[in-house]
Amino acid sequence: MATKDGGSQINEPRRHVLGLVVAIGARLATLGAPAATILSASSAEAGGKAWWKIGERWKGHGHGHGEGPGNGNGPMCLLSGTSIMTPAGETCIESLRIGDLVETVGGEALPIKWIGRQIYRRCGPIWNEEVVPICIARFALDGRRPHKALYLSAGHALYLNGVLIQAKDLVNGTSITQALPDGRDTIEYFQIVLDTHDVVLAEGAPVETFLLEDGNYEDFTNFVEFARLYPDDIAATMTPFAPIVGYAGREHLKALLRLASGRLIRPSALQDAYERIAARGHELAG
C-alpha cells in the first residue's frame, strides 16, 4: 500500500484530470443553450464539422510521418506547379533536381538530396477523396502568405507558431478547403528531401520537407532511386524540425476545455493558429 505522501503524489495527476472532466460537465450543464451555440458556431466556422475533429477521416499522415492517407496509399505532399524559393528565385517543384539549393526559414540555402514523386489518376484504383489536396488560399495565413493558392496533401505540415501543423487540421471551410485546381483528373505530388528535416518556402508559406523515418521513402513511386543513391540511409530516421501537433489525445482535450470555458482558456499553438486563420478566412470571404 502506498504511503500517504506517495499516494498523494501518484494520484494527483489523475485527480486533476477527473476534476477537469467534472468541471467540463458542470460548465456545459450550466451553459445549456449557450454551450450548444458555441459548439454550433465552431462547427460552422469549420465548414459544418467541429473544428477539433477536422480531418479525422485521414487515419494516416499521408506525407511520411507514418502510414499513407487512410489506406496506405503513401506520401504525397506538394502538388505539381507549386513554387519553391531558391537563391535564384522561385522555381516550380517539378523543375528542381538533386543538388539544387532551396531556401530554408533559417535563412540558409541547402542542397536537395532527393525528390520523391507520387501520381494519382481519377481513373486509377488508388484514387479516393483522401488523396485530394488541401488548398491554402492566397493570403490565408496573413497579409502576404501564401502569395498564391498553395495545394498540399492533407498530412503535409506548415510551420506556424513554432510547431508543425498538418494542413488537414487547419481546414475551415472558407480560406482553407479540400479542393483541386482546374478540375484536373491527375494529381502529381512532389516532396523535397534534405539531409535533415527542415522548412522551406512554398508560394511564400513555410512548409516542411520530408521527414525520413522507418523506410517511409518506399511509399514514393520512385523509391528505388533513393535506395540506389543512398543505401546507407534506407533505415535512417530524422529528427523533426519542430514539434508535430495534431487534434488527438491531449490537444483534443485542450480543445474541448477551451470550448467548454467559452474560450477563456488560453489556446495552444495549434488552436491559436486555427482560430486566427479561421477568423481571417471570414474576413476575406466578407
UniProtKB/TrEMBL annotation:
Q: Which residues form a coiled coil?
A: none
Which residue range or ranges hold the Hedgehog/Intein (Hint) domain?
Answer: 76-212
Q: Which is one Pfam family of this protein?
A: Hint_2
Please give the superkingdom of this protein's source: Bacteria
Please state what the protein is called.
Hedgehog/Intein (Hint) domain-containing protein
